[in-house]
Write a structure and sequence with these properties.
This protein has 59 residues and is mostly beta strands. It has no helices and four strands. The chain has a single domain, classed as Rubrerythrin, domain 2, CATH 2.20.28. It is elongated and about 35 Å long.
């Protein structure tokens, strides 16, 4: 897997803060974004909180 496309996604947790800090690694090409100053953000399943939570890109 190409390391320049590999990014770390960190969970923001649910409304009570459960599951905060859980990590996903995924591939994402930052060079093709419309606004390169913004961080990638998506919703993924958090197994600690047992629900979908927001994950944000961490450097």
């Amino acid at each position: 897997m190409s390391q320049d496309l590999l990014i770390k996604m960190v969970s923001q947790g649910d409304e009570k803060g459960i599951g905060k800090g859980h990590v996903y690694y995924t591939r994402y090409n930052n060079k093709t974004k419309k606004d390169p100053s913004k961080k990638y953000e998506t919703t993924k399943f958090n197994p600690v909180a047992k629900k979908h939570t927001v994950y944000k890109q961490k450097k």
